[in-house]
Specification:
single chain, alpha+beta, 6-stranded antiparallel beta sheet, 4-stranded mixed beta sheet, 14 helices
C-alpha cells in the first residue's frame, strides 16, 4: 500500500482548489494529470506546477553552487553581506580587512548560505538544509567546493546570532551521526516576503568541474584519485560539449513532483574518465535523476509533460561486435538457443564474461539451475553455448573491457544529447538510457538509432517505456 502524506494542493481553475487532504502518491499524480489535461492556467504556485508540502525526516544537503539570479535577490545578498561586515566590526571579530581572494570567498559563502535558506523556505518551508561542518568535509579540494572551508562554519553561526537572526541553526551530534542543519530565520523570512522572492530569483553557479580524469582504483578504493591533466584539444572538446549540454539544461523546465526529498535544481552534468585515460569510462554523472529509483523517476516532468524512458537494448553485446568489427546476425544477443527461459540470468553472465579476466567469476545464477533442473553440467554447457552463439566476439571474453565499453557508450549518449538539444528537445541521460517528454519520444528514438549506427556501423534496438 502506498504511504500517505498530508499535503496541500492548490489549483485556482477547478474543484481541487485549496484541497487539504491525505492522498497517496498515485492519487496525487491523477489529480495533477487531470489539471494538466485541462490546461489549467493557474496550476502554478511553486516551480510552475503545483504546491506540495510534506514532512520527511531527511534534510537536503547544502549546495555551494546556489546563487542570486535577479536584481532583487542580489540586492538582498548585498544587504546581508553589509550587515555581516558591520556585525564583525562592531564586535571586533576581525583585526584587519580581508585580502581580495578571501573577500571573494566570504561574499560567495554568504550568498550560497542565504540563497540556500531562501530556496529551502520557498520549496519546503518546514524543511532544513543539512551541512557537515567537520574539518574533513570542509577541507575538500575539489573545485566545485571552493567556498567550503572552516570560515563557512563561523559565518553560519554568525548569521544565526540573535543580533543577525537571518538563520536558525540546529547543531549536529557526533554520537548520533546527525549533521548540523539550518533554515531561514525571522529577518530573512521578512525580507523574502517584502521582496516577493520566488525560486526563479535563484540559480546555480555554472559548474567548473564538468570533466574529471581519475587514476586506476587501488587497494579496494571506491574510485581512483583525481588526476590533473593538460588542457589538450581533446579535453577542450569534451569540456565544450558538456558545457553546451549544461547550458541547455539550465534553460529547461525540469521538475520533480514526487514525495521524496529531492533537489531538482541539480541538473548540471559532468563526465568522469577512468584509469588515467580519456578513452576509458567517460560516463555522465551529476543530474538529480541519475540515482533515482524508477518509481520516483516517473514523477519527473519536462515542459509539464511526464517523462518516458528510451533504453538501448543489449548495449554491451552490440558494442562488443562493433569492437570486433563483426556483423550482427541476431535480434536478441541475450537469447541463447535452448536457454530461452533464462534470458535475464544469461544476460548477467554474458556481461560478466565480457568484463572479467577471471573465469572463476563466471558463476552460474541459481535461477538457471532451477529453470533447468534436469540438465547436468549446466554451467559448462551454457558457457559453451554462449561461445558458440557469439563466435565473433569470443576473443573479448575474459578481458577487462568494461571501461572501453563505457567510453563507447558515453560517446554515443553525448552525441545523442547534442543532437536532441539542436532540435530543441531536453534529454536527461542515465548511462545507456535517456528520459524525454512523451511528445518527443519518436524523434528521440530516431536520433538514438541513427547515432548508434554512425558510431558503430551496426543497428541498435531502442525500447520506449512509459513510466
Amino acid at each position: 500500500m502506498a504511504e500517505n502524506h498530508k499535503y496541500f494542493f492548490s489549483c485556482d481553475s477547478c474543484t481541487y482548489s485549496r484541497w487539504s487532504i491525505h492522498k497517496s502518491s498515485w492519487q496525487k499524480r491523477l489529480i495533477y494529470r487531470a489539471c494538466i489535461a485541462k490546461k489549467h492556467p493557474k496550476l502554478c504556485l511553486i516551480k510552475g506546477n503545483y504546491s506540495l508540502l510534506f514532512m520527511t525526516k531527511r534534510d537536503r544537503f547544502f549546495n555551494p553552487l546556489r546563487q542570486a539570479k535577479t536584481a532583487s535577490a542580489k540586492t538582498l545578498i548585498a544587504d546581508v553581506i553589509n550587515q555581516m561586515q558591520n556585525y564583525e566590526r562592531h564586535l571586533g571579530l576581525r583585526k584587519r580587512s580581508r585580502k581580495k581572494r578571501d573577500l571573494e570567498i566570504f561574499n560567495r559563502q554568504i550568498e550560497a548560505i542565504i540563497c540556500e535558506a531562501v530556496h529551502r523556505h520557498l520549496t519546503g518551508a518546514d524543511k532544513r538544509i543539512a551541512i557537515s561542518l567537520s574539518n574533513r568535509h570542509l577541507s575538500r579540494k575539489d573545485s566545485e567546493s571552493s567556498i567550503l572551508n572552516n570560515t563557512l562554519s563561523q559565518n553560519i553561526k554568525n548569521l544565526a546570532t540573535p543580533e543577525m537572526a537571518f538563520l536558525e541553526v540546529q547543531a549536529g551530534n557526533q554520537k548520533t551521526g546527525e549533521v548540523t542543519s539550518f533554515w531561514a530565520g525571522k529577518r530573512l523570512k521578512t525580507r523574502i516576503n517584502e521582496r516577493k522572492l520566488t525560486y526563479l530569483d535563484l540559480t546555480l553557479e555554472k559548474s567548473k568541474n564538468v570533466l574529471e580524469l581519475r587514476a586506476e582504483k587501488v587497494n579496494g578504493q571506491a574510485k581512483g584519485r583525481l588526476i590533473k591533466y593538460p588542457e589538450t584539444e581533446l579535453a577542450t572538446q569534451y569540456r565544450d560539449e558538456m558545457e553546451q549540454i549544461n547550458a541547455f539544461l539550465r534553460s529547461a523546465d525540469i521538475c520533480y513532483h514526487g514525495d521524496k526529498d529531492i533537489d531538482d535544481s541539480r541538473i548540471e552534468l559532468k563526465c568522469i574518465f577512468n584509469n588515467g585515460s580519456f578513452e576509458q569510462g567517460g560516463r555522465v554523472y551529476g543530474g538529480f535523476w541519475i540515482s533515482m529509483k524508477s518509481e520516483d523517476i516517473r514523477d519527473i516532468t519536462i515542459d509539464d509533460e511526464w517523462v518516458v524512458s528510451l533504453d538501448y537494448g543489449q548495449m554491451a553485446v552490440r558494442l562488443a561486435y562493433s569492437l570486433a568489427k563483426a556483423p550482427i546476425t541476431f535480434d536478441d544477443g541475450y537469447l541463447i538457443p535452448n536457454w530461452e527461459k533464462a534470458r535475464e540470468a544469461t544476460k548477467k553472465l554474458i556481461n560478466v564474461m565480457l568484463n572479467s579476466t577471471s573465469s572463476n567469476e563466471w558463476t552460474m545464477p541459481k535461477k538457471i539451475q532451477k529453470l533447468y533442473p534436469y540438465r547436468e553440467n549446466i554451467e559448462q554447457h551454457l558457457i559453451a553455448d554462449i561461445y558458440s552463439f557469439h563466435k565473433p566476439i569470443t576473443k573479448l571474453f575474459g578481458k577487462t573491457n568494461g571501461m572501453k565499453f563505457m567510453f563507447m557508450e558515453s560517446e554515443i549518449l553525448v552525441d545523442v544529447l547534442l543532437r536532441l538539444n539542436s532540435k530543441g528537445i531536453v534529454a536527461l541521460p542515465i548511462h545507456d538510457c535517456i528520459l524525454v517528454k512523451e511528445s518527443a519520444k519518436n524523434i528521440a528514438k530516431e536520433v538514438m538509432l541513427k547515432a548508434f549506427k554512425e558510431h558503430t556501423n551496426l543497428d541498435a534496438t531502442v525500447a520506449i517505456e512509459a513510466l
